[in-house]
Amino acid sequence: MSLKKFFNNVETEEVEFEEYDEKYPEYDTYYLNDCTEGDKFTGQPVLSEIYEKTFEDKYSGKEITQNTIKLQVVNHELEEVFDASIKLKNKENIQDIWKKSKIGTLIWSIAEVNEVEIKGNKLSNFNIKEFSDEINEMEEITVEIFSDEFENKKGEIIEYNLVKVTEIN
């Protein structure tokens, strides 16, 4: 089969994604990347649906679109919001999750707080929507920021922050 015939037979559709709306613009917002190791936030968790996020890469200057899920921890008493955007591999609700990824770190920490052992370092066919629904049912969590780093292809050390749940009330 020729490539032309192959592509002519592929079904396509245009799917629109809405950017994630900020629900608490009057609250002080603390972003994951601006926090330091050991920072803690307590409040009501809100985990968004998967959405597309477009931004300019600070290293290359190129415009990048990523599939993202957002965790917010909202403290109404202090009028503050902790905000963590977490990149996902695709826009599907069913995903494979690695333990060392940002979403994996979050998932494994919740399991640990609930005294559930996850064997292995990869979750296959993990349902993001069901996970989000469970998180959004929680009344209050405490998250703590941890720093990690990796060496990129140019040999540069890139530091980044991870969020772990340390308490669920």
Strand residue percentage: 35-45%
Count of helix runs: 3
Radius of gyration: 18 Å
Task: State the end-to-end distance.
Answer: 58 Å
Task: Encode the helix/strand succession as letters.
Answer: HEEEEEEHEHEE
Number of domains: 1
Uncertain stretches of 5 or more adjacent residues? 13-20
- Mean of pLDDT: 88
Derived from helix and strand composition plus strand pairing, the structural class reads alpha+beta
Would you report the number of β strands?
9
> What does the overall shape look like?
globular
The amount of helix comes to: 10-25%
Largest sheet: 7 strands, mixed
Task: Describe this structure as you would to a colleague.
By secondary structure, the chain is of the alpha+beta class. It has one domain (17-168). 17% of the residues lie in helices and 44% in strands. It has 3 helices and 9 strands. It has helices at 3-9, 102-113, 128-137, and strands at residues 28-31, 40-47, 51-56, 63-75, 80-88, 94-98, 122-127, 141-151, 157-168. Strands 1, 2, 3, 4, 5, 8 and 9 form a 7-stranded mixed beta sheet that branches. A two-stranded antiparallel ribbon has the order 6-7. The protein starts with a helix and ends with a strand. The model is unreliable at 13-20 (pLDDT under 50).
